[in-house]
UniProtKB/TrEMBL annotation:
NCBIfam families: PRK11197.1. GO terms for biological process: aerobic respiration. FMN binds at residues 77-79, 106, 127, 155, 251, 273, 306-310, 329-330. The keyword Oxidoreductase applies. SUPFAM superfamilies: FMN-linked oxidoreductases. It comes from the Bacteria. One of its GO terms (molecular function) is FMN binding. This is Alpha-hydroxy-acid oxidizing protein. One of its GO terms (cellular component) is plasma membrane. Keywords: Flavoprotein, FMN, Oxidoreductase. PROSITE patterns: FMN_HYDROXY_ACID_DH_1, FMN_HYDROXY_ACID_DH_2. The active site is at 275 (proton acceptor). It comes from Noviherbaspirillum pedocola. Pfam families: FMN_dh.
Length: 394
């Protein structure tokens, strides 16, 4: 059957991956309320089309973080992507390059930043945590500079790691060794297993040169997980800015107050994000958080949104409510897990087609026009589903 949308890629990923890996990607924290709300709350916003407005030529390009890009989309940081397909991060980077969009590599990646930079010619961003071991963090910043990384993306919503109950059940990252059932789980997914057998042994590429991180993959994972620093405060942003004078994106902002703090501490951009509902369950969805964050920032820095983006309409809604672009999380990883590089390309092209059509059907031909005409979004009363107008974004 042909792949029609991101949900199809998700289903294909589910079939190809061992359950514990699929659950790791697909799951959220605690009751997964925030994770579900991220996607569902896009439906709170209705699109008002404008008709009879020559939409024969459309321009989907976007400029952000100092570059011109084919789409307002970034492949966002996703840890362990190289476990879902061999050299997964490099394959994703190649798909991003072919589509003319940037990719942001996770600190927790299998391929190193240098390998990804070599694999594809696209703007590479590096997602970073300020680690307890500041020397290690400085080394990573220096490597990022040498690898021509265009922006650092500092994730700030992970002072501690949350509990993801699917991972608890599967023993993913919670056990120091694989459960006996895990080997069976892997053997029952031969396409994935063959791909992994043909790839080199996994390691965390961004830290593996460090002896103290250990040589064994599981040791490296626990070393890096223990590096998350719960003592971090806003003042620590200065430490980072003294070492990196390129664009700095702060990822994990949900409130107007924190958005202002990010601006005041010298961020170039922010990502309105709740980590895909994987950290604070009960936090508001990102599309609900975006309008007040955008109002507080008032154009002083660029804004990205992530969380639940599975449709071109979601991208249009995010842009109309004040975002300059979106980061994809699960959407591209489902593609990677299903078909490697071509699956990531499928995810991007499905979203491109939906985004393009949605713009045309709304009667606008570019992102600038989407903003200028104040193409209307109407907010339904959440949870009621009628079109009671609470707010008109213009
Ligand atoms: C499997 C997985 C691993 C992730 N790893 C990271 C990470 O290493 N660093 C980070 O900043 N965000 C990470 N995220 C969060 C994503 O960058 C992004 O915020 C989130 O996936 C967006 O929600 P969505 O998947 O619903 O689109 C991860 C998300 C997933 C699904």
């Amino acid at each position: 059957m042909k792949t029609a949308n991101i949900a199809d890629l998700r289903e294909q990923a589910r079939r190809r991956l061992p359950t514990m890996f699929f659950d790791y990607i697909d799951g959220g924290s605690f009751s997964e309320r925030t994770m579900r709300a991220n996607e569902a709350d896009f439906d709170d916003w209705l699109l008002d089309p404008l008709v009879l407005r020559d939409v024969s030529h459309r321009d989907l390009s976007a400029s952000f973080l100092g570059g011109e890009h084919a789409l307002p989309i970034v492949l966002g940081p996703v840890g362990f992507a190289g476990l879902f397909a061999g050299n997964g991060e490099a394959q994703a980077a190649q798909a991003a390059a072919a589509a003319g969009i940037p990719m942001c590599l996770s600190t927790f990646s299998i391929c190193s930043m240098e390998e990804v930079a070599r694999a594809a010619d696209m703007p590479l961003y590096l997602q970073l945590y300020i680690l307890r071991d500041r020397i290690l963090c400085e080394e990573m910043i220096e490597r990022a500079r040498n690898a021509n990384v265009k922006a650092l993306v500092l994730t700030v919503d992970s002072a501690v790691s949350s509990i993801r109950e699917r991972d608890t059940r599967n023993g993913f990252r919670t056990a120091s060794r694989l459960r006996p059932g895990a080997a069976l789980d892997m053997a029952l997914h031969p396409r994935w297993a063959a791909d992994m057998l043909l790839s080199r042994r996994p390691r965390l590429g961004n830290i593996s040169p460090r002896c103290s991180a250990g040589r064994n993959f599981m040791d490296q994972v626990s070393f890096l997980s223990n590096q998350l620093d719960p003592t971090l405060r806003w003042e620590d942003i200065r430490w980072l800015k003294e070492r990196w004078n390129g664009p700095l994106v702060i990822k994990g902002i949900l409130t107007p107050d924190d958005a202002r703090r990010a601006v005041d501490h010298g961020a170039t951009a922010i990502v309105v994000s709740n980590h895909g509902g994987r950290q604070l369950d009960g936090a508001m969805s990102t599309i609900s958080a975006l309008p007040s964050v955008a109002a507080a920032v008032d154009g002083e820095v660029e804004i990205f949104l992530d969380g639940g983006v599975r449709r071109g309409t979601h991208i249009v809604k995010a842009l109309a409510l004040g975002a300059d672009g979106v980061f994809l999380g699960r959407a591209w990883v489902y593609g990677l897990a299903a078909h490697g590089r071509s699956g990531v390309a499928d995810a991007i092209s499905l979203l491109r087609a939906e985004f393009d059509l949605t713009l045309a059907l709304m009667g606008v031909t570019s992102i600038a026009e989407l903003r200028k005409t104040g193409t209307r979004l109407r907010r339904t009363q959440p949870g009621i589903g009628n079109a009671a107008v609470l707010r008109r974004a213009s």
